Amino acid sequence: MNFSISLVRGGVLALALTTFGAAAHAAGSVGWLNPANGASFPVGTMTMPDGQANASGVVGGGLDLVLALDGSGSMGAFVNLPDGSSVRRDILQQQAANALVNSLPAGSNVGVVEFQSSGFVRQTLTPIPDAGVTSAINAIVASGGTDIRDGIVTADGELDANGRAGTSKQILLISDGGSTQSVAVAAAAAALADGYTVNTVGFPGAANSTLAAVATAGGGTFVNFSNNPQDIVDIFGGNSGGVLVGVDGVEITDPDGNTFAGTVDALGNFKVPAYNLKLGANTWTAVATFSDQTTATSSLTLFGTTNGGGGNPTAPIPLPASGLLLGLALAGFGVARRRRG
């Protein structure tokens, strides 16, 4: 896939698991989030480690992200795609937002704000995955005006009300329009003063100078998709590097010595394929390359033990939702059998 993206970064260069106040020019970092380094599991346990890279140099701590999505009438316009087909801007926005949410690691909370002639909360900050977040994103369709300021103010208020202590608190605003720049910039500066980073994405028709100024005032990053809106879904979903956090890519080496490019979303989160643990130490190494071409390295070691074996304290690996439901069903079946017995 070939694409060209214009980036304007503010003073913090961050939309991921970062801490407000991190130095703007800190060296980049990469780290593993789950499972905990040094944990042990029975041999054969399937693991899918995930991690995060960030040019700001800070990873970990959890994420509270509010998506401020444009519901103005102009979002009903069509975007022509390279294959000759077309898609409405609001549908493309839905696809991109869902791809981003689906790529986030465990421990992330997401809220959804819609802004038209005014802003309002469609979904309060909620642990993901959650059907309510998806429904809120998909409910945003074109109608009304464009009040970027009120979108930021509403997102700021949601973080005030429901943000968790100790997390990175972020606002991601997508728009194809513009509004009075001075008040939008003032709202972004106020959010930054509250400890929240404001990042912006421009669709075709957007007032890119306003969105860039908002991101700069909010200490975040502006990404211009005006000329290539079709790429936003792939980029937000993890197919083109952490464009919002200064990450070009992450190279992974698995315990068998195989080296491959990790799947990295726009926020710098990466995942590796499923791997069945072998007896003893199983080590992955991640090498992140940042937009300034510097690199950072981090390793994760998990121990495979025989049943009943000792080793390090065991940290549970989250089951997929379907696996969790199946486990609960089987557990209920066992209880029922014991009662009948």
UniProtKB/TrEMBL annotation:
Give yes or no: UniProt keyword Transmembrane helix. Answer: yes
Residue stretches making up the VWFA domain? 64-239
| PROSITE patterns found in the cross-reference section | VWFA
Q: Which InterPro entries match?
A: CLCR (IPR051266), VPLPA-CTERM (IPR022472), VWF_A (IPR002035), vWFA_dom_sf (IPR036465)
| Keyword field | Membrane, Signal, Transmembrane, Transmembrane helix
Q: Which residues cross the membrane?
A: 317-336
Q: Which Pfam families did the record assign?
A: VWA
UniProt KW Transmembrane keyword: yes
The domain of life for this entry's organism is: Bacteria
Signal peptide feature range: 1-26
NCBIfam families on file:
VPLPA-CTERM
Q: What is this protein called?
A: VPLPA-CTERM protein sorting domain-containing protein
What is the organism of origin for this protein? Thalassobacter stenotrophicus DSM 16310
The uppermost taxa in this organism's lineage are: Bacteria, Pseudomonadati, Pseudomonadota, Alphaproteobacteria, Rhodobacterales
